[in-house]
Amino acid sequence: MKYTYYGQSCFLIEAAGKKLLFDPFITPNPLAKNINVKAIEADYILVSHGHGDHVADLVELAKQTGATVIAIPEVIGWVQKQGIDQVHPMNFGKFTFDWGAVRMVPATHSAGLPDGSYGGNPAGYVLELEGKSIYFAGDTGLTIEMKVLADLYNLDYAILPIGGNYTMDVDDALIATKYLECNNVIGVHYNTFPVIEIDTNIAADKFKRENKVLLLPEIGETITL
């Protein structure tokens, strides 16, 4: 299983013969200026919520790749108005595809759409792929509901926001690992804007002191999970 980071909360997971792209926000991100969006391939695009820093490239990439968009119904409605008909609306629950299972779970955040319309509820996802369970929190603050996921899954990785201000910061993410009972974290949603800039060395040291792993791939870097 491969994980490629494209900046902010955008990443690609390659597993079970499929390419799953999450929260595409690349072209407006100066930190991702070296990413060739035209070269990105995807079979599915999973969207956590409708804020611009999660959907800026959604329509373009959905048209370019022919991917099926997975999102809360309100986001799907917005996507369909822009000519995208390969969609799979979900709400908080689980669906099993032929390549793996996806559970949509709540996130604590706001969720308007770029045109100012109602964006439904923000969400995260738990993926069951190739014998592994991976949690992507989306944009969220620390919430006690994360403890439920430890009852449902033995999580191998948690992809958590760590930039603070709009979401959890590093310290909150460490608490989340205890709720989730997951020691391996991939950090997202940091350094893109001044208010979410962090010292990555300090962040990694905090995780190390708690005997946990914080992975922070460079933008464009691919790692094996």
From TrEMBL:
<keyword id="KW-0378">Hydrolase</keyword>
<comment type="similarity">
    <text>Belongs to the UPF0173 family.</text>
</comment>
<dbReference type="InterPro" id="IPR001279">
    <property type="entry name" value="Metallo-B-lactamas"/>
</dbReference>
<dbReference type="InterPro" id="IPR036866">
    <property type="entry name" value="RibonucZ/Hydroxyglut_hydro"/>
</dbReference>
<feature type="domain" description="Metallo-beta-lactamase">
    <location>
        <begin position="7"/>
        <end position="189"/>
    </location>
</feature>
<dbReference type="InterPro" id="IPR050114">
    <property type="entry name" value="UPF0173_UPF0282_UlaG_hydrolase"/>
</dbReference>
<dbReference type="InterPro" id="IPR022877">
    <property type="entry name" value="UPF0173"/>
</dbReference>
<dbReference type="Pfam" id="PF12706">
    <property type="entry name" value="Lactamase_B_2"/>
</dbReference>
<dbReference type="GO" id="GO:0016787">
    <property type="term" value="F:hydrolase activity"/>
</dbReference>
<protein>
    <recommendedName>
        <fullName>UPF0173 metal-dependent hydrolase O0955_05085</fullName>
    </recommendedName>
</protein>
